[in-house]
Design a protein that fits this description.
Length: about 220
């Protein structure tokens, strides 16, 4: 199987999770963090899901799944330990051309979920195309050590610089050498060391007056 890598915008899209155990809870948290409108259907749910429902973060239906639960849904995740139910969810999703993932069952999914390293706007996805989730997890842990929280601030800074340059009507093609200079100067390393003085000096050298690290990332 050859998978087509893609990042989905699910903000305000209706998504369904069937299953309210620990796996379902992890899937729900990931969807909510990306801005999805999430409905959970399960007779039993974790305390975390109950709290999320009480806080209005998700809709919770404490009952068994019905095919009509898929009506109007952008995607569905099956997170149950019932093989027959999982296959029914997949079949229903196929009828509606709905994106469907069944946890730990890549052979009955039309999309799979990679292991993720998330540092703000930096998202690194690791996939073994379902062949070895354990190896994907190992690589994710190695990448988590390599890419720390400084990369979230780094991308916030780079985004603010890009936005400002565009607002000043700089030609986009002129931006590339500026960003290359900033990147090769190891900005993430300076951020990790909290050397705002050196960052400001670098910004002055490359971009000129008016670019201050603390002001740009706030």
């Amino acid at each position: 199987m050859k998978y087509y890598p893609v990042n989905l915008d699910i903000k305000n899209r209706d998504c369904l999770v069937v299953g309210g155990g620990s796996v379902g809870t992890r899937k729900v948290k990931a969807l909510v963090n990306c801005g999805a409108t999430v409905t959970v259907v399960s007779p039993e749910t974790t305390a975390r899901l109950d709290r999320m429902a009480a806080a209005g973060l998700i809709s919770l239906e404490k009952r068994v799944y019905g095919s009509s639960d898929l009506d109007g849904k952008f995607l569905v995740i099956g997170a149950t330990d019932d093989e027959a139910l999982n296959r029914r969810i997949k079949a229903d999703a196929e009828q509606l051309n709905t994106l469907c993932n069944i946890a730990d069952k890549p052979e009955i999914c039309n999309f799979i979920l990679p292991a993720i390293v998330n540092r703000g706007d930096l998202v690194i996805a690791v996939s073994t195309s379902g062949k070895s989730p354990a190896f994907a997890k190992k690589l994710r842990k190695e990448l988590e050590n390599q890419f720390g929280g400084e990369y979230e601030l780094f991308l916030r800074l780079m985004g603010a610089i890009r936005e400002r340059l565009l607002s000043e009507e700089h030609a986009p093609e002129a931006h590339k050498p500026l960003f290359e200079k900033l990147i090769t100067a190891d900005l993430p390393g300076l951020i990790r060391a909290d050397r705002s003085d050196k960052i400001d000096a670098l910004l002055l050298e490359v971009l000129g007056e008016g670019y201050r690290y603390r002001k740009l990332i706030r």
